[in-house]
Amino acid sequence: MFYPRRKIVPKAKENRNMIYHKSKVLIVDDSEVVRHILSKALTPEGYTIYSAVDGEDGWRKINDLQPDIVLLDVEMPTRNGFDVLREVRENFKAEEIAVIMVTTQSDGKGIARAFEEGAFDYIPKPATESEIKARVRNAIRAIHLLREQKHLRQQAEAANQSKSAFLANMSHEIRTPMTAILGYTEILELEARTHQMPELFLDSLDTIRRNGGHLMELINDILDLSKIEAGKLDVESIACSPQTIVEEVMELVQVRAEAKGLKLEADFKFPLPAQIHSDPTRIRQILINLIGNAIKFTEVGTIRLETELLQAPYDEPQIQFTIVDQGIGMSEAQMTNLFRPFSQADSSTSRKYGGTGLGLTICKRLANILGGDISVQSELNHGSRFSATVRTGSLAEIELLHELHDTQGDSSTAAVNDKTTTTEESPLRGKHVLLAEDGPDNQKLISFILKKAGAEVCLAANGEEAYQAAIQEMERGTLFDVILMDMQMPILDGYSATRKVRDVGYTGPIISLTANAMEGDRERCLAVGCNDHITKPIDRRQLVEMISELSESSELCLS
């Protein structure tokens, strides 16, 4: 016996067809004949069909039924089709309702107007049944594709939020122990040098500190990349000096270059604007990364940083920073892998020199955010040229330099001030600090740092203890000079503790202490009442200076 072959329909297509067949279609036309023709053509398709007798009735039913498709006559009493179309487009998104205009106009002007005002398609009068079916079917297919796209976009946004939450948690979990590792290493190094410990001891501590620093750089790179991909990277646009930025960067990377016996040069091509409007922190980040790469891949020779103004007649002016090295260079094939996350020119490069490949990816995206780009020219075994451009902002009334400004006076004054700060033995002498921290290791470390700087330290193991300690101090008629508040603690977290303390009128300085470094963490801490914010791993000098400044400004306010 012969059995006819059954056509197998993929399940996804089957489900899609079911959705299409359940679609709601509203026919809005003042002609009963036209309504009948359209309804007769579409009924076999399985749609749920409604009708309205004029524009007013149609708009009311659009609001009540919210159909997928509206077949809308152009010329009707009380309210014409274009008026209704405008209302639909003002109140409903494209993926919610698609409008097909039904018109006798054949001169093209009415059809063009319909598309301009947001119609998806049009059906001419008269039209065949097959044409009516095809146009409605296409509109339904398009609207469901738009809905699927919106759903996928929402899923992607939810996934991105989950990723951000994971990275924030990862940051906290890694930064918290790194605070103890790097902090105690620094303390041991200071003590070892004071007591003239053996060289092996000092070398071992230096190795721990250096590798801990590499780990922190990796964590920071991952967090930066995540912020950029999520569109949440905080970028400023402030007045800054290209010359100053270059001089600061050269000073920061000088030690690394000298350690490899490399020469560093800065070359300024004039005229150069005295100021631009951009983000100096992000520009420094780009340049330090690019010069760091040049140092890494160069064994002998010179690394040069060239700075020049690019001005084209019809383009916005840009500053271009070009890093020229005499390193290993790259082939054309190797350059294709640049600027991709977690990739380098080739695997052998990664094995020999280390690194994740995140640095160049971040640099390129930062340059894009700052209105520029990064390009590269390279020749294998002959070195590379990386050029980073950033937008300058308006240069109207900005002085154009034809020689370098003398900034030595400012930097020398800063050096003297820094020396005074760092050589002061007990900058926190007489200060009473409340440390709210639940981690025993970090309690010991931070307490040691504060006591070493001369402070008296009171400990609280959670937010509730911190709140009670602050209240008791208020009842005695005094305040702590500073409260250091860890934001993730048991019983009562730092956010709630700070809010409670402020609610009862506590006015003393509070510094939030957190291992979170994601976008908005600082703002969230300030919003609950903190005066400042410091992230783990803690920079010893930064912490002491912040406490000193806040406590002194608080004393001035009270006096």
Binned strand content: 15-25%
Largest sheet: 5 strands, parallel
Percent of residues in helices comes to 40-55%
Total count of helical runs of at least 4 residues: 18
Strand line-up of the largest beta sheet: 2-1-3-4-5
CATH topology of the largest domain: Heat Shock Protein 90
CATH homologous superfamily annotation of the largest domain: Histidine kinase-like ATPase, C-terminal domain
The coarse overall form would be extended
Give the distance, in angstroms, between the N- and C-terminal Cα atoms: 106 Å
Average pLDDT over all residues = 84
The CATH class of the largest domain is identified as Alpha Beta
Give the strand tally: 19
Corresponding CATH architecture of the largest domain: 2-Layer Sandwich
Radius of gyration: 33 Å
Alpha-beta content class: alpha/beta
Poorly predicted tracts of residues: 1-19, 409-423
For the record, the count of structural domains works out to: 4
